[in-house]
Design brief:
alpha+beta, 20% strand, 3 helices, globular, 71 residues, Ribbon-helix-helix fold, two-stranded antiparallel sheet
Length: 71
């Protein structure tokens, strides 16, 4: 697990994720021309779960599912 701290909506938060999820989030952010903080902020604003780490994992899963469906 890698723990990273980010500023989101004016406050600091920490997220612990496996390195593979961080790599996927970095790829997603680059593809959307966003910063990591911007991507995590979007995930935070649209999450359906109380846990931000779980919401980030689900965002990665859904992103890859949508890419696979487009093939």
């Amino acid at each position: 697990m890698d723990k990273r701290s980010l500023s989101i909506a004016g406050h600091r938060t920490s997220i612990a994720l496996e390195p593979e999820f961080w790599a996927a989030l970095e790829f997603m952010a680059a593809e959307k021309s966003q910063t990591m903080a911007g991507l995590i902020r979007d995930i935070d604003e649209n999450r359906e779960t109380a846990n931000l780490s779980s919401a980030a994992r689900l965002a990665v899963l859904r992103w890859y599912q949508s890419r696979a469906a487009a093939l």
